[in-house]
UniProtKB/TrEMBL annotation:
Signal peptide (from-to): 1-23
Cited Pfam families: SBP_bac_8
Full protein name: ABC transporter substrate-binding protein
Superkingdom: Bacteria
SUPFAM superfamilies documented for this protein: Periplasmic binding protein-like II (SSF53850)
Family: Belongs to the bacterial solute-binding protein 1 family.
InterPro entries per record: Bact_solute-bd_prot1, SBP
Subcellular location: Periplasm
Organism, as annotated: Thioclava arctica
Amino acid sequence: MKLFNVTAGAVIAATGLCNAAFATTTLSIWYHGAGNKVESKIINQIIDDFNASQSDWKVALESFPQNSYNDSVTAAALAGKLPDILDMDGPIMPNWAWSGYLQPLPIPEDHFKNFLPGTKGIYDGKLYSIGLWDAAVALYARKSTLKELGLRTPTLDKPWTKDEFDHALQAAKSSAKFDYAIDLGMSDKSEWYTYAFLPFLQSFGGGLVDRKTYDTAEGALNGDAAIAWGNWWQSLFKDKLAPGTSQDPADHENGFIDGKYAFSWNGNWNAVKTMAKVDDVEFLPAPDFGDGPTIGAASWQFGISASSQHPDGAADFIKFATQDKYLAEFSNAIGLIPATASAAQMTDNYKDGGALSVFFNLSKAQAKKRPVTPGYVVESKVFQKAAADIADGAGVTDTLDASVDQIDADIKRNDGYKKN
């Protein structure tokens, strides 16, 4: 009987060890796409595939509306309740890393060597996040409009100069065929203003902040180049070349398609819809205002919270989710730029010769990340207001000087955003 008890105990112990060895640990992930049925379907499929592919980890998804997502993350961080895996808008990542919300990815950067630069979230020399896609902005035009107005078709190798771009807008206005020469998307008073319009300032030779030190906006946002940008920017609205801040959102959504605008400064996420309704649409590169043509870079990315007790499992999921087949699936479904050239070849629109392959090339050639600094979350808001105020007629120099004061005060208040 004693022998039986020992044997039975050994069996029970062995069974317990076996169960422990095969226990599945749940990893939490937060995503910004609640309400987006297409995105939700794909992210859920990736999670289901990952969970079925192994028995160590089970990923559990919680989705939030995009407009409230960042606030939810901040509140959770303060309460010490962050999930294992977060997704985040690329330019926000440095602030979250500096604030201690994130830990560097325990994945060698070389693993993502073939990814577009804009998809890599690098701060303080470390990789904190990686994206499944990027986005790009182009100048939408009709081939027929270019021909009618006698305009050269710009290329990546030879984009329009400032003079050529200004001439194109004036030619469109003079034709009297359009309500406005160009739609800039002024109705979208959000991160769009910085993402879409900061590149114009940069192409003039200005900037949002000194990118060498990140300790001041002086000279970058109010220097001669920035003032030249501000005067040009204001002229677009003063001369009625573009609708201003009171633009009807519906006109921004469909104005180019309906023929109200000769050109539209717009993202690749609207390209598929436009192609379906405008059979001769052309996607043109950004103009060169003197210091090189630029467009924005860095879209939503995955990272691991600093409080995660299972960074190895979170890293396994991120590596799984960034397979080419999923990059291609997202691209086919929502029209964004796949993160790798090999994934692009698996898509309908971004493969060589595809209708949207121009956007992949634009992202490679012209994309520039917004300032990679924790202070960007404030700097972006300041720029958004300045761009709107100048468009509405505010004094250019005074507005830019005041913006510099606000940004510099924030940097000083946060001790230069030094690494904690």
